[in-house]
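User: structure tokens for this one?
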Amino acid sequence: MIDSGFAAHFAANWAEAWNDHDLDAILAFLHDNFEMVSPSIVRIAGVESGRLVGREAVSAYWTKALEMYPKLNLEIVHVLTGIDSIVIYSKIANDRFLAETFYFDNAQSSTPMVVRSISHYTQ
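Assistant:
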């Protein structure tokens, strides 16, 4: 089970990397075979399944997203813990909210990596 200290630390570092628009720092959290599922992938990348696999594909997508939203800023509202996952609930912009579920390969290791994320947005 993931403890609240790890979850809070991860969430703060994740938000900092995004708020700095530091793609290398963002990618450093991810396993090589990372899978991302998001409705934004459909809209921004034109991938109808809403799924991307691998750092390279995700990097290209996030590069485009950061160019489209240069003022993107995550404001963490809540962090929830699970067995091998956490959920970060954030305010993003224009009174919109984002809930991201992150699954880790080995939450008990010294450097757990994110293997999968699923994003949900308010409309």
